[in-house]
Structure formats: C-alpha cells, structure tokens
Amino acid sequence: MILISGASGKTGKTILKSLVQQGKAVRAWVHHEKQREEMISLGVADVFVGNLREPSAWQQAVQGIKRLYFIAPNMSPDEDKIGAMAILASQKVNLEQFVYHSVLHPQVQDMPHHWLKLRVEEQLFKSGLAFTILQPAAYMQNVLGYWKTIQEKGLYQIPYSITSKSSMVDLVDVAEVAAKVLSEAGHAFATYELCGKEPYSAEDIATIISDKKGFEVSAATEDRGRWEKKVRAAGLADYAIETLLKMFAYYEDYDFIGNGMVLSWLLKREPASFEDFIDRELSQE
User: Fold this and answer.
1) Residue 131 forms part of a structural domain
2) Could you say which DSSP state residue 155 is in?
3) How much of the chain is in helix, strand and coil states, percent to nearest 5?
4) Per-residue pLDDT, 282
5) d(Cα 274, Cα 144) in Å, to the nearest integer?
6) CA quadruple 245, 254, 139, 69: dihedral positive or negative?
7) What's phi and psi for 237, nearest 5 deg?
8) Tell me, what's the pLDDT at 284?
9) Residue 176 sits in a domain of what CATH number?
10) CA 185, CA 18: separation in Å to the nearest integer?
11) What is the DSSP string of 83-136?
12) What angle do CA 24, 28, 31 make, to 5 degrees?
C-alpha cells in the first residue's frame, strides 16, 4: 500500500487520481475529518486523519505501508522537522520506498522554503532508506489563480518582472511521474528535475492566453508593497509572506530555469507545453 501525505491539497489529489486510475492501493492522509468524504469520492477507501506535526500520528499512518509519497504542508517553516518525523517513522517499519516531493533548485538559500526542502533531502541521504526525490518546477495550474482577473480585465498581474523567465510544469505530468516511480523498479536513490521544455515569462503567458482566448491579455507587474498589504489582509501567515517576497526578488534578479530532458525521459514523450495546458483547460470550460 502507498501512503500519500498532504492528500487533500492540489498536488496530493492529482497524484491520488493517477494512482487510483491504475488500481493502486492508497492510504490518503488528511488533516481534518471533514476531508474524508472527498478522498472517498476520489476512490480512496483507506483514509487516515491526523496531524503531520505529531510523531505519534506518523507512527500510526505508516503501519502496513510499503511506499510513502511525502508532501509537506505548503510554505511550512518546520518542513525539515516534519520530514525528520516522516523519515524516522519510515525507518521503524523498514519502508521499501520513500518518495519526496521537493522543488526545483532547492539549493537556493535565498528562498527559505526551497532551502528547507534541501535539508529534508540531506536527511534522506543519511537515512538508509531507498528514496526517490522529485523536484518539480512551478505548476502551470498556478496561473489559474489569476484566471478571474484574466477573464474579466484581460490582465495577468504578478509581483515581479514580467520579463523574468521561469520553467513550468503541468501538474498532470508530475502526477504521471509520481505514479510511475511508485509503481516500477529502478528509481531508488534517484533525484529527478521535473520541468517542461520551455521557460516562460509573464509576457509569454499573456500572449499565449490572448491567442487561445481570442482577446487581448496584458501582463503587468504588481507593486510588492501593495501585494503584501493585500495578502496580509487576507490572512496569509508572516512566514509565507516573507518567503514569497524573497522568492519574487530572486525570480526577478536571476530567472528560475531548469531542463526538461529528464521529464521527457520519464514520460517517454514530450512534456505538456503551456499551450497544451491552456488548450486542455479551455476544452473543459
């Protein structure tokens, strides 16, 4: 059986769907009892409810598990501590495979949420466990968070330079790779960078959406001070705000680009382009 932590999030649900479609036995770990029904609706019969920050919950969750797909809470200042709990619990049950959902370029200390993922990777190297590390770029799906403004105002606005280039990846492709490494031999002690073939700027994204939607979409840079006031008012945690501001500055200064060859090799096909992603989203409207 495969345990998926963080199963109720965007990443977890997409990976769950991929595994369920393949008929894999999955245990979905969620934080709240009210999330149980959604997991069952996705075809998961085994749902574990618990706090990822409690060692005792980890000891219970891994019972009867052979493989773990570890997704940490998003933008968590204690991801390395949660990772340590997951690793210790996995060691105690002699887990066959520990798959860690990391991030592209975790080596960048200027982005604290990336740097903490590197600390978890380092723990895995010392653990004696058979691990697989996936390092995805930013999801193409993140653009959908701006979709209402794009639709209503023809505006795609981000809090860093619209000419900054970043690699992106379709979460559906990431889920396909996750299911692959959890289902077949040969991926022990591997670290895989998961990126689409081409990096994109906000200007590129706006142009592609304009072409696909048939009306003009413009890219613009939002003042970061204004962005900070907005998200603070919405209740975003201080750590997340500080970390995201550092990430925006890094993107603006250095871009954020990886290589798509590894993902092509794993998928045995070309990864989805942003054009492919938009075509699929528009077909579902």
Assistant:
1) yes
2) E
3) 50, 15, 35
4) 87
5) 12
6) negative
7) -65, 150
8) 84
9) 3.40.50.720
10) 18
11) HHHHHHHHHHTT-SEEEEE--S-TT-TTSHHHHHHHHHHHHHHHH-S-EEEEEE
12) 175
Range of the domain at 82: 2-139+169-195+257-272
Spatial CB neighbours of 126, under 8 Å, sequence gap ≥ 6? none
Contacts of 45 (CB under 8 A, 6+ apart): none
Distance CA 245, CA 239 (A): 10
- Closest to 24 measured CA to CA, from 170, 135, 184: 184
Q: Say how many domains are in the chain.
A: 1
Asked whether 106 and 85 are in contact (CB, 8 A), the reply is no
Q: Would you state the pLDDT for residue 45?
A: 87
Taking residue 191's Cβ as centre, other Cβ atoms within 10 Å add up to 16
In terms of Cα–Cα distance, which of 127, 156, 126 is closest to 144? 156
Q: Which two tokens mark 206?
A: 């706006």
What's residue 26's pLDDT? 96
pLDDT tens profile 180-217: 999 999 999 999 999 999 999 999 999 999 999 899 99
- Can you tell me which residue has the tokens 């968070």? 145
Q: Return the pLDDT at 283.
A: 87
pLDDT of residue 114: 97
Quick check: is 47 in a domain?
yes
Is the residue at 12 inside a domain? yes
Pairing, β 26-30 against β 46-49: parallel
Contact 162, 201 (CB under 8 A): yes
Residues in the chain where the model's pLDDT stays below 70: none
Q: pTM to 2 decimals?
A: 0.96
- On whether residue 17 sits in a domain, the answer given is yes
Asked if residue 100 lies in contact with residue 130, where contact means CB atoms within 8 angstroms, the answer is: no
Q: Helix, strand, or coil here: 4?
A: strand
Dihedral Cα 262, 266, 269, 272, nearest 10 deg = -70
Gyration radius (Cα) of the chain, Å: 19
